[in-house]
């Protein structure tokens, strides 16, 4: 049992290493003919404005005011196809988005890693450094993965605040 689990864990690591290396190849412009890793996340021929953020490249809107709606000129990444409301294929298009950084989004718009090392009840409540990643369909400015200090999970982790709100 333990050996099998170990082997699975090893496979998982290998897979992540391969994913990492494949991304590296694309970034470094290697002559790979592989399908870019984001393509599996990008539905074909759907509405451009609904594409996950990983599928598009958008130009910065420098007149973007925090908390206000702004329009961004975006283009699909290579191997991604999408259409406008009249079902015409588009390569560049405009998206509407609230002007804010990813780390400023409401908690429901991202998912954070949990900690396995801080289940202990302690006072003051212990915190840990989580990495939070924005959900695919949410658009925001800056790094889509960001660190955040979260309370340890002895009452349901960071859902503590949610529990209070309910
Ligand atoms: C930035 O957003 C504003 C507000 O939507 C818009 O009027 C303006 O044209 C946009 N600028 C660019 C360069 O996209
Ligand atoms: C963006 O917002 C403007 C004004 O609110 C609207 O006319 C336009 O259709 C919207 N575009 C998209 C792609 O949602
Ligand atoms: C909190 O703990 C429960 C049970 O141990 C676990 O299922 C859940 O994923 C944890 N949540 C966070 C945010 O760490
Ligand atoms: C978050 O990411 C950093 C660097 O990528 C890593 O060192 C750290 O262990 C991660 N933390 C968690 C809780 O996954
Ligand atoms: C985005 O955040 C991740 C994890 O925190 C970090 O490894 C990466 O270098 C950051 N990327 C940029 C462009 O800042």
What does this molecule look like?
There is one protein chain. The protein is α+β, with helices and mostly antiparallel strands and about 170 residues long. It has two domains: about 60 residues, no CATH class; about 55 residues, no CATH class. Helices cover about 20% and strands about 25% of the residues. The chain contains two helices and nine strands, in the order H-E-E-E-E-E-E-E-E-E-H. The strands form three sheets. A three-stranded mixed sheet has the order 1-4-5, with no helix packed on it. The longest helix is centred in the N-terminal third of the chain and has 26 residues. It is elongated, with a radius of gyration of 20 Å. The structure holds 2-acetamido-2-deoxy-beta-D-glucopyranose (5 copies).
What would you call the shape?
elongated
State the low-pLDDT regions, or none: 17-31, 155-166
Roughly what fraction of the amino acids lie in strands? 25-35%
Going by helix content, strand content and strand pairing, the class is alpha+beta
Main β-sheet description: 3 strands, mixed
User: How many strand segments?
Assistant: 9
Number of domains: 2
Alpha-carbon Rg, integer = 20 Å
What's the total helix number? 2
* Percentage of residues in helical conformation: 10-25%
Distance N to C terminus: 42 Å
**Average pLDDT level:** 78
Record the strand order, biggest sheet: 1-4-5
Bound molecules: 2-acetamido-2-deoxy-beta-D-glucopyranose
Order of helices and strands: HEEEEEEEEEH
